[in-house]
Amino acid sequence: MARLPYVPQDLAEPRGIVDAIRARRGGALLNLDRILLHSPPVAAGWNTMLGSIRKDLALSPKLRELAMCVVAVLNGAEYEWGHHAPLFVAAGGTEAQLAAMRDPEAASRNAVLFDAAERAALALTVEMTRTVRVAEATFDAVKAALPDPRQAFELVVTIAAYNMVSRVLVAVGVEPEGH
């Protein structure tokens, strides 16, 4: 159960912020949005930043969603997993990869299911989420797999951003839609 009340689904004000969130979401407000809208400035900034991460990066959608799913696993954010696991599959991931990602450390060493870029992203996600500090060898593997500095940086930013998302979801107890 959410620790704060959700704002109403039919919330109309502040119009500009609510309309921008609805536009990004295809018309509806998710439960996360209904918590974020307790603070319109936070909701507006969140919508802009996370919208850019979701649609404007050079990083591949598959690596982006892989990182989001692993952050969800590591932080116990089932809401996040529920939203991003289908997007990972839609971006080219497999059900076998999803199952393996429930143990991210083992997945980061699994050369059968994951290619070098995916294993590097898995390892980076684990280190950034668990200890914040990243070993040189881990970052070197990311740079080898993603030689474009923009993509390597965008992977770091995606991991950091979705750690923020999962921490809000878990701390507030945001529930899946329909509960």
Q: What's the number of helices? A: 10
The major sheet is characterized as: none
Secondary-structure element order, as H and E?
Answer: HHHHHHHHHH
Rough outline: globular
Radius of gyration, CA atoms, in whole angstroms: 17 Å
C-alpha end-to-end distance:
9 Å
Oligomer: single chain
Q: How many β-strand runs? A: 0
Structural class: mainly alpha
- Portion of residues in beta strands equals under 5%
Topology, element by element:
Layout: H1 15-25, H2 31-36, H3 40-55, H4 61-75, H5 78-90, H6 95-100, H7 104-107, H8 116-130, H9 136-145, H10 149-172
Helix pairs in contact: 1-3, 4-5, 4-8, 4-10, 8-9, 8-10
Structure description:
- There is one protein chain.
- Helix content is 67%, strand content 0%.
- By secondary structure, it is mainly alpha-helical.
- Helix 4 packs antiparallel against helix 5, helix 4 (61-75) runs parallel beside helix 10 and helix 8 packs antiparallel against helix 9 (136-145).
- The N and C termini lie close together (9 Å).
- 36% of the residues are buried.
- The mean pLDDT is 97.
